[in-house]
Amino acid sequence: MSVQDVIVDQLAKQAIPLRTSDDLDVLLEAIGDKKVVLLGEATHGTSEFYKLRMELSRKLIEQKGFSFIAVEGDWPSCYEINRYVKQYADAKSDAREVLEGFDRWPTWMWANEEVLALIQWLRTHNAALPPERRVGFYGLDVYSLWESLQEIERYLQEHGTPEQLALVREAFECFEPYDKEGQHYGVSAAFYGESCEDDVLKLLAALHEKRMRYEHDREASLSAELNALVAVNAEHYYRIMVRDDVESWNIRDRHMTEVLRRLGEFHGPDAKVIVWAHNTHIGDARATDMADDGMVNVGQLVREAHGEADVFAIGFGTYRGTVIAAKSWGAPMEAMQVPAARKGSWEELLHRAGAQDQILLLNQEDPLLGHEVQRHRAIGVVYRPQYERGNLVPTVMARRYDAFVHIDESTALRPIAIKKVLV
C-alpha cells in the first residue's frame, strides 16, 4: 500500500460528513475559547466558501461573542460596510448601495450576493445591541492608497487642524503624477528615487497623535489612522514590488497583521476576531514551500503573536466545480470550470476518501497528516485552468491548518454588477 493509500484510509476514518449547517458545530466545539479564528478559501470566487464562512461567523458571533470580522479587502470600502452594519446616522441605508463602493477590480470579491446576505444579517443582529457591543466589519488589505488618502482628507476637513490637512494634501500632490496606478509609482520610486515615503510617514504620525487626543470620536479617528497606515505600507509595497516579489508579499501580510493588532487593541483585551482571507494568507506559511522562499503570512504571524493555543485556522478547498475569476489582471470576470483535482493532491485524496463535503479536524502531532507533504490547490483572482500545475502548493495539512473543509463539487460566486461613476 502506497503512502497516499494510507492517507486516504485515514481520511476516510477521520473526516466528518458536512450535510447541514448543524454539522459545523463540530468546528465550534474545536475552537473552544480561542480568540482568533482564521477562515480561508482556496479561491476568491467560490460560493460555498463564502456561505460556509458566513454561517460559521454567525455561530461564532451569536454563541461565542466574537467582536468583529476582518477581511482581505480595502479599508475604505469595508469601513462603509462597518458603518452600514452598525447603523451610523449618516451611513448608507441600502446594502447593495454599500457594495457599490467595491468598484475597483476585482469587484466580485466583495460585491456579491453572498456578502450581501452576510451584511444584511449583521445589520439585523446589531440592531438589537447597544452601539458599544455592535459587531464590526473591517478591511485588512494594503492596495487602497488613493482611496485611503481621499478618506483621510474628508475626515480632516471636518475634524482636523490646518496643519494636518496640509500634510494630507502634500501627500496627494506627491502621488498625483502617477494617475492612481501603484505600479507607475513603484517604477518611479524604485528606479528614479521619486519617493513619497516621508509624506505618508508624517501623516500617519499626525493622525496617531490626534486619535489619542480626541477620544469622543474614536472609531472615526481610528479609521483615519488606519487609512494613513495603508498609505504608508502601500507606498512601501509599490516601491518594493517591482524589484522583489517576496518582500512585497511580506509587506502586505505584515500590514494585514498590524491592522489586526490595532483593531484588537481598539476593541479591548477581551476582543475576539474572525478573519476571512485566502488560504495562502491564513494557513501557516511554515507548513508550505513559502518558508523556503523567506515568505511569511498572516497565519504564521498571528500564531507567533498570540500563541498557537489562542488561534484556530480553517482552510477550505474543492475537488472540482466552477469559479469566478479572470484570465489576466484587470480582465473581465467570468465563470470558469475548476477541473478535477490532480492525482495525489489533498483535494483528490479527500475525494477518494469519500466523494462528499467533509470536515477534517487536524492535529499537528498526527504522525501522518502532521508530516506528509502533498500538493494543495490555490486559485487567485487570475486563473487559467490549463496551467493548473502552477496553482499547487506543497503542504503539510495538519501544520498549515487546525481544520479543513472540503467541498467536493463547488459553484461559482454570484457577483453584483457595479456601475462605474464617471467624474
UniProtKB/TrEMBL annotation:
Superkingdom of the source species: Bacteria
SUPFAM superfamilies: EreA/ChaN-like (SSF159501)
Positions in coiled-coil regions: none
Alphabetized InterPro entries for the sequence: Emycin_Estase (IPR007815), Hydrolase/PRTase-associated (IPR052036), UCP036794_erythomycin (IPR014622)
One Pfam family named in its UniProt record: Erythro_esteras
Protein name: Erythromycin esterase family protein
Organism: Paenibacillus aestuarii
High-level lineage: Bacteria, Bacillati, Bacillota, Bacilli, Bacillales
